[in-house]
Design a protein that fits this description.
This is Metallophosphoesterase. It holds the Pfam family Metallophos. With 301 residues, the protein is α/β, with parallel strands linked by helices. The protein has one domain: Metallo-dependent phosphatases (Purple Acid Phosphatase, chain A, domain 2), CATH 3.60.21. It is 22% helix and 28% strand. It contains 6 helices and 14 strands. Strand 11 and strand 12 form a beta hairpin. Helix 2 runs parallel beside helix 3. The longest helix has 18 residues. The chain is globular and about 50 Å long.
């Protein structure tokens, strides 16, 4: 790859739970490829949609596998943000939202010394937080929301988004889009509301109606979680006429835990467009199945 300064990239990492459990070598190959190619990609941000691990607090070795791979990203000082997935909670939401192990390995301590760190909803907890970057003159706010976001967190998110009205907001959360191209709603498998520990949850349709559609600066939402399909896209306008790009991605049920597939989001500030594609770090090739590559014009950048 040859770097073009008019193009910058972001990477979306889907559920890595199978990788951290059974295929740590493939997980590390993924992060190694990202770091090795970060300069050519002009990589500015990495977003993880959650389910870092499979078994919460009961198998700490899975978090250690994650740390071993992700430490390469941290050492390269690439700004990143990790959403919490249902499998990342200590008891997998069977009882409550305890998240001590997630915060031990993916907590605020990873971010708070960085100049791009914003703030968090709860003190010393990373489930709901935001970071900020100015890229090629464009101000971005990256907002992570907990799995099955609670009403009180959405009130906080409203304020954060409103206070940064001059920023393009990109949201990462574990469950939001379903694999059929609709937002999650009652009746969908693995809806956040069905877990005993998250009976206070909002699903994707709730989060859209209660919060995201109201704000003119919300730009995109990325999520994972649902199975067995791998990808879906939804593009629609919010209440203020702004286009909101909504993407689901998850390969955990495919061979080798998804191979460490990532999505590469490339912005071209001259042509005013962005492309999103699927890359397999094991084969080092882009994949071209239906819907894997999309290109969008940007009218309001």
């Amino acid at each position: 790859m040859t770097r073009n300064n008019n193009v910058f990239s972001m990477i979306i990492i889907p559920d890595t739970q199978e990788l951290s459990t059974y295929y740590p070598d493939r997980l590390k190959k993924m992060t190694t490829w990202i770091v090795d190619n970060a300069e050519d990609l002009n990589l500015k941000k990495i977003l993880h949609v959650g389910d870092v691990v499979n078994n919460g607090a009961t198998h700490e070795e899975q978090y250690l596998n994650h740390q071993d791979a992700y430490s390469l990203i941290d050492a390269a000082n690439i700004p990143n943000l990790i959403a919490i997935g249902n499998h990342d909670y200590d008891n997998l939401l069977h009882e409550n939202r305890d998240s001590a192990m997630f915060n031990k390995y993916c907590g605020i301590h990873k971010y708070e010394s960085k100049d791009w760190f914003g703030d968090s909803y709860e003190h010393n907890k990373a489930e709901n937080m935001y970071t900020k970057l100015s890229i090629n003159g464009i101000k971005f706010l990256f907002l992570s929301l907990e799995y099955g976001t609670r009403d009180e967190v959405l009130v906080w998110a409203d304020k954060v988004i409103e206070q940064h009205s001059d920023h393009k907001v990109i949201v990462v959360t574990h469950s939001y889009m379903y694999f059929n191209g609709e937002r999650t709603k009652p009746g969908d498998d693995h809806n956040p509301k069905v877990y005993n520990g998250s009976r206070d949850a909002n699903d994707g349709e709730d989060v859209w109606n209660k919060c995201l559609k109201k704000h003119k600066n919300v730009f995109a939402v990325f999520s994972g979680h649902h199975i067995p399909e791998n990808i879906s896209t939804r593009v629609e306008c919010g209440e203020n006429g702004n286009t909101v790009y909504q993407f689901f991605q998850n390969w955990q049920c495919t061979p080798n835990g998804g191979e460490g597939r990532i999505r590469i989001l490339q912005f071209n500030v001259v042509d005013k467009k962005f492309d999103i594609s699927v890359f397999n770090p094991q084969t080092e090739k882009f994949e071209l199945e239906e819907g894997y590559y999309r290109s969008f014009k940007l009218s309001d950048f």
